[in-house]
Amino acid sequence: MSWMLVVWGALLALRRRVAVWSLWMPLLWAAPLPVAATGAHVQGQVGGSVLLAAECHPGFQVREAIWLSLWPSEELLATSFRGSLETLYHSRFLGRTRLHHNLSLELGPLEPGDSGNFSVLLVDTEGRAWTQTLQLKVYDAVPRPTVQVFIAVSQPPKTCQAFLSCWVPNISDITYGWRQEGTMDFGIKAHGLFTDGQVLRVSLGPEDKGMAFSCIVSNPVSWNSTIVTPWESCHHEAGKASYKDVLLVVVPVLLLLILAGLSAWYWGPCSGRKKKEVCADEVTLQTENPLV
Question: Residues in domain Ig-like (predicted)?
């Protein structure tokens, strides 16, 4: 009995879809060849929403509309037929579509795989058709970038030359930029930039201790930044270098002192087997012939 109910439900759904298309087919066959408009680009962010606007030339009195997703497969998203708006069609956007009364389609929340082409077929009161194609590109939100400081030359307290490396993982269409904090200049001279702006070279002096730089990473829909003060890394690097210098001096001196001590002990007056015997004889003679 249960399987009969399942089959009956599937037949009802199929009948409903066939009924919808049966209403549209005479209209489409009777309408003249549609005029197409292409090239509209829409950008969205994962987790956000976008509005796909249905536009046509002035004087076009829209009566019906059909929204389709064209990639990776053609899917029916929404329809407007005689003022009745419908979006409950089985597609990957089911539950994420909203058809406005101006026949623009809202999609959201967006997912990474939602990029693709969409089309809307508009039919006016005289049976003329207008087709519009839109291309949607969905981007991830840009995370906060990671900035690393690599010291090239450090001669404290005079100068410090460093390379600032900025990086974000797995984000497409990324643009890198640098800005010196506290200034109105949002750009850095090109001769100090490397690898498409991802690396910045700076030369600092004692007067630049508080100088900070921002790495600004952006894509077409979002941006993020991180601030770094390179002189702090120069100072730490200088401390590490002086500690190494101390070790380079102290360790050889300690080794020389240890070797000198061992040498003195081995080559001393009572070291070695023969010298031990001589020392023992001298001690015996001194005990046998004590001083009077």
Answer: 145-229
pLDDT at 144: 96
Distance CA 135, CA 113 (A): 13
Residue ranges covered by each domain of the chain: 16-139, 146-235, 237-281
- Look at residue 229 in the predicted model and tell me its pLDDT: 92
CATH topology of domain 146-235: Immunoglobulin-like (2.60.40)
Q: How far apart are CA 29 and CA 21, in angstroms?
A: 12
pLDDT along the chain (292 residues), means of 10: 40 41 42 53 96 87 94 93 91 95 95 95 91 95 95 73 91 91 65 84 87 94 95 66 40 58 62 50 47 43
> What's the rounded Cα separation, in Å, for the pair 215 and 223?
11
Residue 40 in tokens: 């509209």
pLDDT at 165: 94
**pTM recorded for the entire structure:** 0.65
